[in-house]
Design brief:
Length: 206
């Protein structure tokens, strides 16, 4: 696949990780592959823990000119010097947040498998829309974001789109021509060598 057409990489942290180890694991992956953005997706509701994780990962990401966005914790974006927010509830708050955070902040919206929700988010000012899962997962209700959705989006909508959720090398090959980003998370962090796992996952892109 030509470099210009090759989807960019969007890394998603695990929902739980050891703060003594994970920043170094992330650094190794960022040094091995070109990554456009990292999403801090901690499941914790402990503000102190989230803030400490954000500080550590911001240092790693910004040292390599990689943007760091946080999942849902809107109030921490400016306080912690992050680049933006990833919303998991579709288009609902995009317009208000664009006003609050300004034009420079990255605002992304996860829209599940719903084209309508994606269009609403794009119209409200989202910088990107993500759909998923694209692969088989026992989580959720079993619905998947199919190839047709991405094909339609890539032809009709200018706002970048992210394919994420249960990715495999086969799916990377399939969705490569119709997505702008691959959102990669648990697929690589479960492996002992995350950078090698990422390389194998992206192998079909050439």
């Amino acid at each position: 696949m030509a470099e210009a057409d090759r989807p960019q990489l969007y890394l998603v942290t695990p929902p739980e990780f050891d703060l003594d180890i994970f920043p170094d694991r992330l650094a190794a992956v960022l040094d091995a592959e070109e990554v456009a953005c990292v999403r801090l997706a901690l499941a914790s509701r402990d503000e102190d823990r989230v803030a400490r994780a954000a500080d550590a990962l911001r240092e790693v990401a910004h040292a390599r000119d990689v943007a760091l966005v946080i999942e849902n914790h809107v109030l921490l974006v400016e306080r912690l010097g992050l680049d933006g927010v990833h919303l998991t509830d579709g288009s609902r708050n995009v317009r208000k947040l664009r006003k609050d955070l300004g034009d420079d902040a990255i605002i992304g919206a996860f829209c599940g498998t719903t084209r309508h929700e994606g269009i609403s988010a794009a119209e409200a000012g989202a910088d990107y829309v993500s759909f998923g899962p694209v692969g088989e997962t026992p989580l959720g209700d079993g619905s998947r974001a199919d190839l047709d959705l991405f094909q339609w989006w890539s032809e009709m909508i200018e706002v970048p789109v992210v394919a994420e959720g249960a990715l495999t090398a086969e799916l990377v090959a399939q969705f490569g021509p119709v997505t702008d980003f691959f959102g990669v998370g648990e697929e690589i962090w479960k492996a002992p060598d995350a950078a090698a796992a990422l390389k194998a996952l992206l192998a079909p892109l050439g």
